[in-house]
Amino acid sequence: MKRQVTILAALALLLAASAAFAADDVAALKQLKAADWTVPGIEMKMRLVPAGTFTMGSPKEEADRREDEARHEVTITRPLYVGVYEVRQKEYYDIMLPGFDHASWQFWRGPLHVGAAYNYRDWQGGEGGKLRPNYPMECVTWHKAVEFCKKITAQEEKAGRLPEGYVYRLPTEAEWEYACRAGTKGPYNVEGDPKNKDHLKTFAHVDEGETTDVGRKKPNAWGLYDMHGNVYEWCLDWYGPYPTGKAKDPTGPAEGKKKVGRGGCWCGETGPFLRSASRYQFEPDVNFYAILGFRVVLGPEITR
């Protein structure tokens, strides 16, 4: 009996310590001091990126440069948390379709929803196939990506785990490039010969037939994976010309027809659209591209 009491007391102490540790983590997050944060419930890993100033765009001599990449100085005035990985299929379905029966769903029974991930199962695994929960979510519209972010914001606001004035959302185009570069100034965020395809494939998933598990390649200096390749990533901004001169926390044009996609993808040539400065544009309603996904940030709320 005495032993049972001792064990129960020890368990109570462990639970109390765990609760205190969790409270300390939340307090650090809300003060923007936690270096890392994992969103409870879906295990989405976030990394703190400091405020800072960088040169956005590319120099005229950069190979494969396009005219919409005019260089200009940008300051990100407040720190933000950036997803360590592109949003995975498991995270997406857990939030957008909680309780979905992945085990019994079959491809020929119809899509999960409008814009279901194309690379949802490995059909080499036999009838039904093997699930790919760690593959990036793709075939998702800009609107669905925004909805996903709003659902996480509502969850975390209810739990009291948001820094004041911060929400989960898509990154602005400037935030995306700032996070991608992580202090680098060359074509890619890992230094080396940009013409060496073997070097490129150490940090960029490209030209390999389909998407793959997130995090298989080398991360950038801030510990962020797949900023080059795997899938294009939706940004918050409408596509348009860059502002002239210096800019602070730019959010792109007030209106437009297409949204910005960044980072390149798994298909195509190993080069032009993978670069840190490269810009692409997609209609926000497009939902049939297995090349297009997204990454989440926890950043200052942006209202228009």
Question: What report would you give on this structure?
Answer:
The chain is α+β, with helices and mostly antiparallel strands and 304 residues long. It has a single domain (34-300), classed as paralog of FGE (formylglycine-generating enzyme) (Alpha-Beta Complex), CATH 3.90.1580.10. Helices cover 22% and strands 18% of the residues. It contains five helices and 14 strands. The chain has helices at residues 2-30, 89-96, 142-158, 173-181, 197-200, and strands spanning 36-39, 44-49, 52-56, 72-76, 80-83, 121-122, 130-131, 166-169, 232-238, 247-248, 259-262, 280-282, 292-293, 297-300. The strands form four sheets. A five-stranded antiparallel beta sheet has the order 1-2-5-14-8. Strands 12-11-9-13 form a four-stranded mixed beta sheet. It has a three-stranded mixed beta sheet with strand order 3-4-10, with helices on one face. The longest helix has 29 residues, at 2-30.
Q: Give the low-confidence spans.
A: 11-19
- Kindly state the percentage of residues in helix: 10-25%
Q: What structural category characterises the helix and strand content?
A: alpha+beta
Radius of gyration: 21 Å
Can you count the helices?
5
DSSP strand (E) fraction?
15-25%
Mean pLDDT, rounded to whole units?
88
How far is the first residue's CA from the last residue's CA? 64 Å
- The spatial strand order of the largest sheet comes to 1-2-5-14-8
Choose one word for the global shape.
globular
Do you know the CATH topology? paralog of FGE (formylglycine-generating enzyme)
Number of separate domains? 1
User: What is the CATH architecture assignment?
Assistant: Alpha-Beta Complex
Order of helices and strands: HEEEEEHEEHEHHEEEEEE
Main beta sheet, described?
A: 5 strands, antiparallel
CATH class: Alpha Beta
* SS elements, strand count: 14
